Amino acid sequence: MDTNQVLINYVQTELAKGRKSEIKPDDDLLSEGILDSLGILQLVSFLEETFDIEVDDEDVVLENFMTISAINDFIQSKK
Amino acid sequence: MITKKLLSLNGISISSVILYHAAGWVFIAMFWWTDRFRNVAVPNFDLMGSPEYYLLRFIEQLVIFAIPAFLFVSGYFIAFSTPKDQPAPSWLIIFSRIKSLLIPFLIWSLIMLVIKLIEGEKISIAQGIEMVVLGKTTEAFYFIPLLIQFYLLSPLITRAAKKSPFFLLLITGFFLLLVRFGQYVLILDWTIPGRDLIRFFLPSWFFPGNIFWFALGIVIAFNFSAFKERFHPWRYFFLILAILLIPLGMLEWEYLLSHSGRDWFPPRETILDTVYGFSVLISFLTFKLKKLTKIKAIQSLGTLSFGIYLAHSAVMIVIAKLIYRFVPKLLGLPLLYLPLLIVCGLFIPIILIMITKRSPLKQWVGYLFG
Fold first, then answer.
1. Torsion angle defined by CA atoms of residues B245, B251, B254 and B259, in that order, rounded to the nearest 10 degrees
2. Which one-letter DSSP state was computed for residue B261?
């Protein structure tokens, strides 16, 4: 499964919690109410464990987590 | 790693909220339901000063940092939601966040109203609306209207946090101390000029009394490296201060209670409690805590914290009333009653969330539990 799909599956099942039926790579996760304060904390842990990367404090900015595509780009930049 | 720490902080804070409210129910049993396990008239304050009484007070004092911690994490999220080149988060993000708080809050507020009506309480429609809007359907729910006010104010706060963070903390800190000072005025019945004005700021759902914690989260998030550099050398100072403030806070409350002219009433946050909350937060952020942040159970509690927060009040009231009716002897055994309330208050909401996630209602889990 490619990274985008892994991310979409995770966000859909763990973070969206039924608030959106289909998540696309360029959906704004914050404006759509999918990513909240707990969601971002959860997502960072998931990325570290699943993709074996280290997310530094300075990396946790909106620009890296706004969409699935942005998260994907961020993961690739960390590998 | 700050995100793991914040998730753990949320997990510890939600456990603390459960402990605090469980202790509150045991106090009710001790003083107001005494006639269910002893042949006395109520209220009865014979158990004031007993070892069980001080155990409960210790718990309340220990966990009083929980709400400041939740507000701090929410402020941290607002800073995250603010693009680097923008002064504030977009209104779209703010309204979407408010929506995701509001729907589950309204559902659980209605559940609490129904419980009250079933118990025979008379509530008019106007009273019901006021209770919901101000988060008064249960003791814990003031937090959500409070948080919504902070989100609405967040464009102003983030602007101030970017321009003059020190000034922002000074102003919000002033309001915090003013409101805490107001508690002394009311408890000790001081007659001072501006007493009515102070009273105006006191309700827990009203933003001035807690805005400092939200602003602190934003300011620290915007300046995390500078914060670490400045506060790291002071970490043992804040830890020791936090430890010392637990017994001092207990002594302060006993003093206030004995000079209030009342037999007993639930604790209110004082200036010492505020300094304690601040010290706990700073200690948590400045120590590494690597082992703590690896404990999966705490992290999992952190991820479920809002759902647990919403559901625990209804669970606790039902359990407490069932025990009152069917097993009243248990009310006289605080060392059994307290852990039972804690376990039910924590795990029944978790079970409810898990069942909902695995049921046909799973698409509604976000609307039910946040």
1. -100
2. T
Helix intervals (H) in chain B? 2-31, 51-62, 66-80, 91-118, 125-133, 143-163, 165-187, 195-201, 211-222, 224-231, 235-258, 271-286, 290-293, 296-303, 305-326, 334-357, 365-369
Asked if A63's CB is within 8 angstroms of B84's CB, the reply is yes
What are the φ/ψ torsions at residue B174 (nearest 5 degrees)?
A: -65, -45
B300/A contact by beta carbon, under 8 A: no
Note the pLDDT of residue A20: 82
pLDDT digit string (tens) for B69-91? 999 999 999 999 999 999 999 99
Its ipTM equals 0.90
Question: What is the C-alpha separation between B5 and B289, in angstroms, rounded?
Answer: 8
CB-nearest partner of A18 from B3, B84, B362: B362
Q: What is the pTM of this model?
A: 0.94
pLDDT in tens, A13-72: 889 887 788 899 999 999 998 998 889 999 999 999 999 999 998 999 999 999 999 999
DSSP output for B110-167: HHHHHHHHHTT----HHHHHHHHHTT-SSGGGGHHHHHHHHHHHHHHHHHHHHH-HHH
- Delimit the domains of chain A by residue range: 3-78
- DSSP symbol at B363: G
Is B122 at the interface with chain A, CB within 8 A?
Answer: no
Tell me, what's the pLDDT at B362?
Answer: 87
Q: Which residues of chain B have pLDDT under 70?
A: none
Could you give the angle at the alpha carbon of B307 between the alpha carbons of B137 and A24, nearest 5°? 125
Sign of CA dihedral A69, A74, A78, B3: negative
Could you count the other beta carbons within 10 Å of the beta carbon of residue B291?
7
CA B285/CA B73 separation, integer angstroms: 11
So what's the pLDDT on residue A79?
81
Distance CA B59, CA B209 (A): 23
Q: Which of residues 11-40 of A touch B (CB under 8 A)?
A: 16-19, 21, 28, 30-33, 36-38, 40
Q: What is the pLDDT of residue B168?
A: 98
Nearest alpha-carbon partner for B27 in B348, B277, B320: B320
Superfamily of domain A3-78: ACP-like (1.10.1200.10)
**A1, pLDDT greater than 80:** no
